Amino acid sequence: MEPLTTRASKVVNKEMTFGEKIYLPAIFSGMWITIKHFFKKNNTVSYPEEKRPVAPIYRGQHVLKRDDEGRERCTACGLCAVACPAEAITMVASEREKGEESLYREEKYASTYEINMLRCIFCGLCEEACPKEAIFLTDRLVDAEFGRNEFIYGKEKLVEKIDQRIDVSQRQIWDNH
Ligand code: SF4
Ligand code: SF4
User: Fold this and answer.
1) What is the pLDDT of residues 75-131, one digit of tens each?
2) What is the H or E stretch that residue 90 is in?
3) What is the pLDDT of residues 42-69, one digit of tens each?
4) What's the angle, vertex CA 55, arms to CA 51 and CA 59, rounded to 5?
5) Which domains are present in the chain?
6) Is 134 touching ligand 2 by the criterion CB < 6 Å?
């Protein structure tokens, strides 16, 4: 019968030599390979303590931006959720109350905004769909977690802190509209 590939080799039941029978040459050659690796450069990255550098346009963890006055830019229009191919975004829209003008930029805002990071494929379509320049992907990595629920990021993780703004100018031309 014709072999299926040219890489097929015939199995021969030949008698082992004395060297093969005592296994020592095979053991030493294996140990030699192991010893050589002790002196090679270690390529392992001890994530999460150590992180590889990523490009400034890397599509990592999202941020919900504030405007210059510290107000949340998101107006809960839902376009990002509609654009998301992974159905990873959910939100609840609320009306801005009197006296909350310094918190939310528009009359409508997202009282709840969640992204399921286990569903997200970091495609960036939410960022492209947003008419308010409210959501951006950043060069931050999503943290390793032990529980699935911990990957559902709410506003406390997504909205940038007033005193710790996230620079997204490398990702997009930021025009401060
Ligand atoms: S990056 Fe893509 S998959 Fe992730 S939330 Fe945005 S649209 Fe959805
Ligand atoms: S992030 Fe942008 S697209 Fe998504 S709901 Fe808010 S304003 Fe709309």
Assistant:
1) 999 999 999 999 999 999 999 999 999 999 999 999 999 999 999 999 999 999 999
2) strand 89-95
3) 888 888 788 888 888 899 999 999 999 9
4) 90
5) 62-175 (3.30.70.3270)
6) yes
